[in-house]
Specification:
The chain is mainly α. It has one domain (about 5-295). It is about 85% helix and about 0% strand. It contains nine helices and no strands. The chain has helices at about 5-50, 60-80, 80-120, 125-175, 185-205, 215-240, 245-255, 255-270, 275-295. α5 runs antiparallel to α6 (about 215-240), α6 crosses α9 (about 275-295) and α8 (about 255-270) runs antiparallel to α9. The longest helix is centred in the middle third of the chain and has 50 residues, at about 125-175. The radius of gyration is 26 Å and the shape is globular. Mean pLDDT is about 80; it is low at about 45-60 and about 70-80.
């Protein structure tokens, strides 16, 4: 393995993952400008026909108003929703789901604990007994009534929004997606991909239990980075018509690049001590990494 090429590939993957997130700021504008520019010749021809039609008595002022109205209607009907979908993901996962968990765990429960301390005394046996019953009961009710249902709902909604983001970004950069497979083959490919991702995740979790801390942490982190890279690029490769075996072979052959690409998301999702909070962080960041994966050009033969 060439250390220089390996280091460059890891750094390039890390750079592409961050650089692609910046591209989302201008992506909507570029898509909408392209739509309007594609529509403008048709509008201009229709306007010229009306201007030189002797049977028409519409003034130039009215023609300009009509042209502007057509532009607004076209723009509103075809406007890109990339930023809108990303904002929606952030509000659902961060503003509603994550914020409610943080308020409950670090606001409501500590506040209630202090309130019971004021009533029974900070070190009283009765206060500790009441709190030992109230805290798990409230936590169980919160998970059953709010946390788990909202988690499942957010996963379903995020899947739709992320697919919408990926399709819009792909059409902007590469044109119409390629769907060369039959529907049955596409369904089987998707299911097999989910199974592979599940076992890959389990493998990373198992590696984290190796007795040697540095080895277990490193191997688990590498697995998570590669898995998140697969998540980010899979939308693009699926739209390109790549089957699952080709996607996996490409990541295996060029893993240093994808290791670097997955570092930012793996780092931020490993910070929380709760898997639910980690899932919220992942859902907030993932749309940006879909854009990054769509805009990136992986380095090949870097091992």
């Amino acid at each position: 393995m060439d250390i220089k090429n390996f280091s460059y590939a890891v750094f390039k993957g890390l750079y592409d993952s961050v650089r692609g997130m910046v591209a989302v700021l201008s992506l909507d504008k570029e898509i909408n400008e392209r739509v309007l520019n594609r529509r403008s010749p048709t509008r201009s021809n229709s306007v010229r026909q009306k201007q030189f039609d002797p049977g028409e008595h519409t003034t130039k002022k009215h023609l300009k108003k009509e042209e502007m109205l057509m532009m607004i209607i076209t723009f509103c009907s075809r406007e890109s929703k990339v930023m809108k979908r990303i904002v929606q993901c952030s509000i659902l996962n961060g503003g509603i789901f994550l914020l409610s968990i943080l308020i409950f765990r670090y606001g409501l429960l500590p506040g209630l604990n202090k309130f019971l301390g004021l009533i029974f005394g900070q070190e009283s046996f009765m206060g500790k007994l009441v709190w030992s019953w109230i805290e798990p009961t409230l936590s169980l009710i919160f998970r059953a009534v709010w946390e788990i249902p909202l988690f499942l709902l957010s996963k379903a909604v995020n899947a739709l929004w992320c697919q919408d983001i990926a399709d819009l970004a792909y059409r902007h950069s590469r044109g119409r997606p390629i769907y060369s497979q039959r529907v049955s083959v596409m369904i089987a490919d998707t299911i097999f991909s989910m199974v592979i991702q599940f076992f890959f995740l389990i493998q990373g979790i198992i590696l984290s239990y190796i007795p040697i801390y540095l080895v277990s942490t490193t191997l688990s982190f590498v697995h998570i980075c590669l898995l998140y890279s697969l998540y980010s690029f899979e939308y693009k490769w699926f739209n390109m018509g790549w089957e699952i075996h080709r996607r996996l072979a490409f990541i295996e052959a060029n893993w240093p690049y994808f290791l670097g690409f997955g570092i930012p998301m793996a780092f931020f999702t490993q910070l929380p001590d709760s898997w639910v909070i980690s899932a919220c962080v992942f859902s907030i960041l993932f749309p940006f990494f879909i854009i990054s994966g769509n805009e990136a050009n992986p380095i090949m033969d870097s091992r």
